[in-house]
């Protein structure tokens, strides 16, 4: 029996999560980003993402993508990893969204595809959209790849993000693995007991029931996890082990990030 | 000497379904008590009550001369020392291991109890060394094997050097080698002042970890006695669903007898 859409998606999601193991390894290597205080990484890369979204010129966004590539190389992040995990996937998703703009944006006709005119303005709009998303997601991925998740959480907490939000992020990251594993096992178990091909109606029913059972399991699990935290002294406030200390190179790094961001916004108006 | 835990006519239910009924029990300081019972007999609920994670619907529980109530556990001056003195290892290690790395996991409880940083670091390192998990320090807990998860779960509470260790099925689902490692650790950890309360349905480990056994069945106490009193009372074990009639053949003779997995051997007539 072939895998249905939901099962294939779950399995793909599980495989993608497995890739986060590689992230932890990259985060522990020596490199430009890894050497900076996690708070600088969070603020600096967020500033660059903001600059990407505020820049209206393709050349400026392309320059920011070049900056992202340079940071990746200096932080020992493989470009192949970025291509597989970011660029191709983003191109696929954003490409679909940007495609109609080629034909629907009014302007000077550049070419004709299957009888439809492609305008110069349409090409520019589509390229800017794709490039923006590629660059923004590259910066975000660099943060995740070069920073252990625990440090991202600590940085967010020390940047005054509410502790409830930080705890929610921590728990989501931790238990999404377990729930995806459980969902995959449930699908496998179902497949092992299914003979023949189910029609789409039956598949939808099964998927609905599986989602219901998974929800019940996750509720029970979250209750137990909370009890386990209480049992070990959790009183509602996350205690953090190490206090981050900013050095002069951290201040320099932060300044560089902010200057590049400001320059991009200024020239990309 | 007054008992460490004093339970009087304790009852508890989950949404109207009785989990414990009229339980009265004293547990002395330094005692190694095993709660023996089949699945659903109320063992895990009793451990949670002893750890003040839930509270009786009726009856009382005393700890070291003070009543364990929901009001009292809200008070930091009682809760923090209590959480340091009493520690629970959950049956499912995935419930207990919610931190991004093994180190964070072992450091979680001392952090919540606000230990000084130097003391915390040296104690965490010492515990990881003793439990043989130092090499797992930076690994995410969800990537560990079942035996490794169990050892990390144990380390995450033993790090506090608690006076009372509550263990919920500590060897269930483990392979024989991991099972023996966990039993060795429990035996090694026990000091003259330490109290170990273990919930299990595995008869084969009881002799190694018990001074006294309480047998539970459907939330009621069926027996309370020494290892010899309980383990050789086949009627009692059959009634509590802890053994079953095992039918097998020797040559041409087929017979049945209670199926025990203890170190004791039986004679065939």
SSE layout and pairings?
The complex is a heterodimer of chains A (269) and B (269).
Chain A: H1 5-18, H2 20-27, H3 32-35, H4 38-54, H5 58-74, H6 79-104, E1 109-113, E2 116-119, H7 120-146, H8 149-158, H9 163-192, H10 200-231, H11 248-267
Antiparallel strand pairs in A: 1-2
Chain B: E1 5-14, E2 17-27, E3 32-36, H1 43-50, E4 58-63, E5 66-67, H2 70-74, H3 76-85, E6 86-89, H4 93-96, H5 102-112, H6 117-130, H7 146-158, E7 164-168, H8 176-189, E8 195-200, H9 203-209, E9 212-217, E10 220-226, H10 227-231, H11 234-239, E11 244-250, E12 253-259
Parallel strand pairs in B: 3-8, 3-9, 6-7, 7-8
Antiparallel strand pairs in B: 1-2, 1-4, 4-5, 9-10, 11-12
Briefly, what is this?
Chain A has 269 residues and is mainly alpha-helical.
Q: How would you describe this structure to a colleague?
A:
- The complex is a heterodimer of chains A (269) and B (269).
- Chain A folds into two domains: 1-30 and 149-238; 32-147 and 243-269, no CATH class.
- Chain A contains eleven helices and two strands, in the order H-H-H-H-H-H-E-E-H-H-H-H-H.
- Chain A has helices spanning 5-18, 20-27, 32-35, 38-54, 58-74, 79-104, 120-146, 149-158, 163-192, 200-231, 248-267; strands spanning 109-113, 116-119.
- The radius of gyration of chain A is 23 Å and the shape is flat.
- With 269 residues, chain B is of the alpha/beta class.
- Chain B has eleven helices and twelve strands.
- Chain B has a six-stranded mixed beta sheet, sandwiched between helices.
- Chain B is globular, with a radius of gyration of 20 Å.
- The model of chain B is unreliable at 262-267 (pLDDT under 50).
């Amino acid at each position: 029996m072939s895998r249905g859409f939901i099962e294939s998606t779950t399995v793909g999601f599980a495989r993608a999560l497995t890739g986060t193991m590689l992230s932890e390894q990259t985060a522990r290597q020596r490199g430009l980003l890894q050497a900076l205080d996690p708070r600088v990484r969070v603020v600096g890369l967020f500033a660059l993402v903001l600059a990407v979204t505020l820049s209206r010129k393709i050349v400026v966004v392309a320059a920011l993508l070049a900056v992202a590539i340079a940071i990746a190389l200096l932080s020992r992040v493989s470009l192949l990893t970025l291509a597989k995990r970011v660029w191709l996937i983003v191109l696929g998703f954003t490409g679909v969204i940007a495609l109609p703009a080629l034909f629907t944006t009014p302007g000077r006709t550049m070419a004709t595809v299957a009888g439809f005119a492609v305008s110069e303005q349409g090409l520019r709009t589509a390229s800017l959209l794709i490039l923006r998303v590629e660059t923004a997601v590259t910066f975000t991925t660099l943060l995740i790849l070069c920073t252990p998740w625990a440090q991202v959480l600590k940085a967010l907490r020390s940047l005054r993000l509410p502790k409830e939000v930080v705890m929610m992020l921590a728990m989501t990251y931790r238990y999404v693995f377990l729930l995806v594993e459980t969902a995959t096992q449930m699908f496998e178990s179902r497949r092992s007991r299914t003979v023949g091909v189910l029609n789409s109606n039956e598949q939808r029913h099964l998927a609905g029931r599986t989602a219901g059972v998974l929800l019940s399991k996750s509720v029970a699990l979250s209750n137990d996890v909370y009890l386990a935290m209480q049992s070990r002294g959790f009183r509602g406030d996350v205690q953090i082990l190490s206090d981050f200390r900013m050095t002069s190179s951290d201040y320099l790094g932060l300044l560089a990030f902010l200057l590049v961001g400001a320059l991009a916004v200024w020239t990309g108006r | 000497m007054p008992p460490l835990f004093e339970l009087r006519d304790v009852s508890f239910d989950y949404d109207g379904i009785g989990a414990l009924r009229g339980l009265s029990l004293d547990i002395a300081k330094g005692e190694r008590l095993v709660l023996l019972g089949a699945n659903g007999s109320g063992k895990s609920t009793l451990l949670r009550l002893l750890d003040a994670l839930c509270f009786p619907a009726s009856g009382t529980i005393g700890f070291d001369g003070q009543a364990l109530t929901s009001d009292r556990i809200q008070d930091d001056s009682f809760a923090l020392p209590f959480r340091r003195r009493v520690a629970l290892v959950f049956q499912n290690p995935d419930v207990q291991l919610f931190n991004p790395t093994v180190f964070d996991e072992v450091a979680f409880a001392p952090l919540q109890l606000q230990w000084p940083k130097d003391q915390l670091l040296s104690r965490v390192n010492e515990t990881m060394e003793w439990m043989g998990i130092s090499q797992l320090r930076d690994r995410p807990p969800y990537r560990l094997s079942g035996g490794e998860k169990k050892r990390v779960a144990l380390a995450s509470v033993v790090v506090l050097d608690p006076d009372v260790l509550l263990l919920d099925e500590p060897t269930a689902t483990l392979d024989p080698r991991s099972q023996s490692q966990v039993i060795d650790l429990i035996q090694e950890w026990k000091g003259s002042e330490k109290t170990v309360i273990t919930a299990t349905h595995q008869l084969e480990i009881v002799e190694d970890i018990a001074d006294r056994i309480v047998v539970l069945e459907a939330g009621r106490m069926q027996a309370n006695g020494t290892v010899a009193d309980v383990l050789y009372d086949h009627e009692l074990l059959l009634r509590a669903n802890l053994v079953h009639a095992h039918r097998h053949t020797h040559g041409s003779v087929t017979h049945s007898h209670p199926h025990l997995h203890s170190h004791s051997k039986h004679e065939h007539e």
